[in-house]
Amino acid sequence: MTDIQACLFDLDGVLVDTAKYHYLAWKRLAEELGFVFTEKDNERLKGVSRTASLQILLEVGGVTVDEEARQQLAERKNTWYVESISGMDHSEILPGALEFLKECRTRGIKTALGSASKNAMLILNNTGLTPCFDAIIDGTKTSSAKPDPEVFLLGASELGISPSACIVFEDAEAGIEAAIRAGMRSVGIGSPDMLGRADIVVPSLAGFSVSRLNRLMDETAAL
Ligand code: BG6
Ligand code: MG
Hints:
The chain is an alpha/beta fold. It has helices spanning 19-33, 39-43, 50-61, 67-86, 97-106, 120-127, 150-159, 173-182, 192-195, 210-222; strands at residues 6-9, 110-114, 135-137, 166-170, 185-189, 200-202. The chain has a 6-stranded parallel sheet, with helices on both faces. Helix 1 crosses helix 4 (67-86). The protein is globular and about 50 Å long. The chain starts with 5 loop residues before the first strand and ends with a helix. Magnesium ion binds next to loops.
């Protein structure tokens, strides 16, 4: 039997489908700068901080700008992104996410958010997810971005749970790497091609449950 005492959740792409809004805003910025930014290019931005995302985007477009312009571009993208997420409501919670969060708490498993986003509170409040967490760690509380383990270690520490008793839910490769570096187990949400280093990978949280989590973890341990 696995000994999971806390579940730590990434936000974008795990609990809510905000990846599409990030993409639309970055694509718009690229268009203004005169190049095309594809969905495939966007895969590289998942889980990556705003500053690092801009760096990748500029590399894709072969664009060089100074630090001041860089900050203005990041702010510009964020203004568009915030416009999109300001209209979000509970209908944009991904299937199964709310049910699983509630089940964790009913069963006495602690829950924490571990997100790189500085806009996490706006999304949590708009979707009504804020009360589902015992601890919330977002991009305003961390200094190192995933794959650095800081966000998850802070979450575990705020919950008072040892990292070895935590499991992370992530849709990004950088997030799975952060979980591994934190000494935590992980569930990849998405495709095994991208998330193969996670202990288990499921396509989404739809129909997911604590008993399914325990069963899958037991099967993994028996391999
Ligand atoms: C992550 C997203 O959760 O947050 C990234 O996967 C995003 O795409 C990062 O760049 C930072 O988000 P924000 O809202 O602070 O720009
Ligand atoms: Mg994510």
